Amino acid sequence: MPPLIGIAARSAWNRRASLSLTVLAIALSVLMLLGVERMRHALRAGFEQSVSGADLIVGARGSPLQLMLYAVFRMGETTHTMRWASVTALAEHPAVAWVIPVSLGDSHRGFPVLGTTPAYFEHFRHGDRRALKIAQGRPFEGVFDAVLGAEVAEALGYRPGSRITLAHGGGELAPEHADKPFTVVGVLSRTGTPVDRTVHISLAGMEAIHLDWQGGAPLPGTSIPAEYVSKFDLTPKAVTAVILGLKSRAAVFAVQRHVNAFRAEPLMAVLPGVALSQLWQVMGHGERALLAVSALVVVVGLAGLVAVVLASLNERRRELAILRAVGARPHGILGLLVIEGLGLTLVGALLGFVLLTALSLAAGPLIEARLGLAIPATLPTASEFALLAGVIAAGVLASLLPGWRAYRMSLADGLTPRT
Amino acid sequence: MKRFAVLLLTLAFPLVQAADYQVGERLNAPKTAKAERYREVTWDDLLPEGWNPMQAIKDLKLDQLEDSDPRAIEAMEKLKAMWNDAPTNPAIAGKPVRIPGFMVPLEFGQSEVKEFLLVPYFGACIHVPPPPANQVIHVLAAKPFKTKDYMDAVWIEGQLELASINTEMGEAGYRMAAARVTPYKE
Amino acid sequence: MAAPVIHIADLVFRWGGTPCLDIASFHLKAGEKAFLHGPSGSGKSTLLNLLAGVLVPAAGELAVLGQALPRLAGAARDRFRADHVGIVFQQFNLIPYLSVLDNVLLPCRFSKLRQERAGDPNAAAARLLAHLDLERTLWGRRADALSVGQQQRVAAARALIGHPELVIADEPTSALDAERQAAFLELLIRECDDAGSALLFVSHDRRLASRFDRVLALPDINRAGERPS
Fold it and tell me: What is the ipTM of this complex?
């Protein structure tokens, strides 16, 4: 076998013009396969990291998944809010350690605005139970203070002291609360979660900018200037959701039962683990479909390789006859072709991985900014290795076809091929 | 586009049942001969003798009552009270046991579950009310359990302890620390 | 009494149902040089493949160096050929993308015996190439960069490295022009003498026959008559 490896390598190099395209095709298909797998993991990790530390998420009764997606990931929307009275009632429940009320709905230049309390900075956890860190400045105190996530500050070039105005709703033509600008007082460190893309203000601030608004537009004729805002009661009447932390995790069921049976208004309590589990179920179908498509693309790439090698076999009959003349066995000829196919697949897979790394490094920051997904440029993980191994195994299997052809040809030709 | 995707997700959601289990489904009585240190128990073993919440409504003819009938409401309240008050079975405390159930994940991430509640049936707290305290085990895994499905069916082995019951807090009745967790296969 | 290099008795080979080779007897002694006149269609290729152990006869005796080839399994026959037989074709003898030197060294890669006999394979190859009038500058070049005449001489070197007992040359001069044919033949015969190898030279050109110990015609010894190739 050893002499064949060298011969296979040089033979392939000799035909590099036609083979390089198929190797590139394999490389691109591997890029797609690994890329899809990586994004899948990044997506899952992104979701999981965003909810660590939240024992329950409570909101108006409706779809649990929708509530979690909106409250934690700022994706989509809900139409129903929950009353402030319920929030205080929950805070008083003996099993509850802390509450973080959150209010969503406004935006600033495409970034969502979150109204919350200082408890957010104290109790919110992400990733591996990590707390939020203030990179610059301080949490909000005044009504019109704002704390920015790392991405917002970086993308728009804000620092403590910058002035911003918020828009109502999320669209491009969202009407602005132009008369009540906010001042940036703090910027958070990067978390790799939707926190980075969020503008945080106090609930009082959220209430203030909607004082003279009704149903999404400013009330005509009334306009309450910022200075007079403090004369009004800025306790919020309703919030989007509440994130709960319990004194003991084992009490989740009891608290959930309590929330579900709430007399004052219809509420529901969502266990993040359960909701995520169900999200994975739904996503699982799409993920599997995408994986199947990627695998198909790899098959196509390998089919191209087989076609090219088969096509070249005729010209190589003399070459194979010479090898037989110096003592190669027909099985050796088969082995030669298989080694060649294996080598080409290996090179293609390696090239694909290199391309993936290059792409991760180049486009990674952009994807993280736009989608909040962190795609690391690392060595292959266990599952990625398994995929690569699968591709290479498929390459070996595919090479058996030209190998078999060459084997039969060699047997028939012997030393005297008729070319 | 994002809105559409979220809408699609939430609509598709109720149509999807997880892996192989239906909501409310229980696991079959195990036929394995594992014995050794751990005694295989069933969920009924976790209930104290003579505790039967259905006692409250035994005498009522529920199908003849309307939902809003005061007697029905009273019966439901009694049921809920018993549910909340679910006492544990002291006979089983401190014993090394082996029991199968479904996970409700509490601490998880990267295809691993480290801490969870073990319940007798699938879908607890999705569409079906969660079980009473004496049918819930708060499990801390000795080693993180690797799984793609965080609500999978598993065997747990370990020493079953009574959790400190504070009915106001309504904690899980039982606790198992340093449990050995293995997948449940039919 | 050493076994003859080639021993053939009542050898029959059939293509399909009809016999294309039927040889009553043929022998080649050690170191002997035989010229076999074989026009195309006379069963020449079949005989070559049989002697090389690539094909197996339907009937009869076929022994090379005393080893009955039909008794060996396919892989063993290939090994035997690698160990004991050197082959020169009419053209396209060399692997085009390997260097001249690598081509010459090929048999040593496939046969331990020949590698050992060659001693230091690189030195042996160098010696053969020099004897065959190939200058050093050509040795590192790609094989397909050489002229046909040069390629044939490289092929001879390859066939001879490691002292195989039998060298089979199938029309090795047919692609060369007249003046070079004689020169090539001289070199080949001299090296075979040097190595002590027997030479079976097959050609349709009788003019070259004078240098050989024995001259035969394949149609004369092949009782199966002419077959179209």
Answer: 0.91
